[in-house]
Amino acid sequence: MTEAEIAGLKIEIKEVILQALNIKNIKPGNIQDNVPLFARDNILGLDSIDAIELIMAIQKHFKVRIADQNLARHILESIDTIADFLIKEKQKA
Amino acid sequence: MKEINFEHRMGAHCESGTVTSLLNHKGLEITEPMVFGIAGNIFFGYFESSNFPFPTFIVRNRPGSIRKNIAKNLGVKFYTKDFKSREQGEKMLDDLISKEIVTAVQVDFYYMDYMPEWQRAHINVHFVNVIGRNENEYLLSDSYFPKKSTLTIPKLTKARFAGGFMAPKGFLFYPQSIPSDIDFEKAIRKGIKKAAYNMTKLPVPFVGVKGIRKFARKVTDWPKLARDTDHLSHEIMKINILLEDQGTGGAGFRYLYASFLQQAAEILNDDQLKKMSKQMMEIGDNWRNISYFAAKIGKTRDLGPERLKELSNMINDMADQEQPFFTELYKIVK
Predict the structure, then answer these.
(1) Nearest to residue B122, comparing CAs of B158, B174, B149?
(2) Cβ contact (<8 Å) for B292 and A52?
(3) What is the CATH number of the domain that holds A27?
(4) Could you give the number of structural domains in chain A?
């Protein structure tokens, strides 16, 4: 993937997250790519219960399966890690 | 730092991941789903008693059973020991490291401070492999963490000797010997038979498919047991945690079991098992829908009778799916 495509993918991921969690007061551009999504100081203010909603939304939108929950923890660490996972999944297909 | 040459691998679940890594280290090529499946660990149990502050459920067999059933079904001999004295427990672990013996220890997960704080909770049945030590720290291989990690000596000792329900008591184990002529086909059949028996034939009203049905019936009564809406919401959201988190590999271990069936189908050259593996994956997807639903209604406090009835129906559907599934599985290996 080109850098522009990766940047586009990251925007798409952010939009999926905001939509899945019904967050309306934050714009995709305000979410940093490398900041842990579930850290207390993250702008999104996510908790562990949100994780399942994110998994379901990512699975549905990008047509992938995140079966292993331990793997899910690391996939959902940041926008960068979600993008890495999706790029690898795309390469496998 | 004295470090034993050990290949760190992540796992879906701490006990099966730890046992798998130990067996791999000792020279046995086996995957984590295979360890989980041969140990016959897929399960369901719904519990409500004075021992629990609120009804709860489990989706795998009791902690320690993976090691015990692997010993039984594969003939692996494990050394196991627990301790009354912290000093003795620490000394034995140090002696084993100095002899280059990788050793699994039972710990309170809360003290594994290399994990993010939000993921840590007091759970006394976490397992990690100890693979080295220096003056101040132990080197660990924790299947929940992407790389090898360190923990101070006092902290690991505290974690090994934490108090409370299912206290670890310094418990440690390692494989002493592995037979050279393991009959994997036989072991797989035994593991499947045990799991299918537990899920469909065990004459206990709160275990297996009967347990799932009980859960479905009882969940609509949870509002009567909860102190208030916040408490009820917490307990409903815990359904998601118990199914998806706490090392279940996702969807209450159903995905892990599906992987086992897929690998078993290849070893036994059995197309029917391959088909069952796909079915188990779909069953896992449906359990995950329950996780999602519970998380959502719990979080939004949408906990009226209609929503709980909806949840109850979803859980009962799982019993309807798992009853014929495990009945069929039992027939295949009988």
Answers:
(1) B158
(2) yes
(3) 1.10.1200.10
(4) 1
State the nearest Cα–Cα gap between B127 and chain A, in angstroms.
Answer: 15
**C-beta of residue B112 within 8 angstroms of C-beta of residue B127:** no
Both tokens of B268, joined, read 């036994």
Q: Is residue B27 left, alpha or beta, with left meaning phi > 0 and alpha meaning psi from -120 to 50?
A: left
Exposure string (b/e) for B250-279, b if CB count within 10 Å is 16 or more?
Answer: bbbbbbbbbbbbbbbbeebebeebeebbeb
Q: Is B296 on the interface with A (CB under 8 A)?
A: yes
Tell me whether B191 touches chain A (CB under 8 Å): no
DSSP B219: G
Nearest residue of B to residue A65 by CA position?
Answer: B285
Q: What is the CA radius of gyration of chain A?
A: 12
Chosen from B9, B10, B260 to mutate, greatest number of chain A CBs within 10 A: B10
Which ranges in B99-253 belong to alpha helices (H)? 153-160, 184-200, 208-218, 222-225, 229-244
B265-315 pLDDT, tens digit per residue, is 999 999 999 999 999 999 999 999 999 999 999 999 999 999 999 999 999
Both tokens assigned to B187: 């072991």
ipTM over 0.85: no
- CB within 8 Å: B295 and A53: yes
Selected residue with higher pLDDT from B190 and B247: B190
CATH class of B2-30+77-177: alpha beta
pLDDT at site A53: 86
- Cβ pair A53:B291 closer than 8 A: no
Length of chain A (residues): 93
Q: Is A22 on the interface with B (CB under 8 A)?
A: no
What residue numbers bound the domain in which A7 lies? Answer: 3-92
Token digits of residue B263 = 């690998």
Q: Contact, B83 vs B169, CB < 8 A? A: yes
**C-alpha distance from A50 to closest chain B C-alpha (Å):** 8
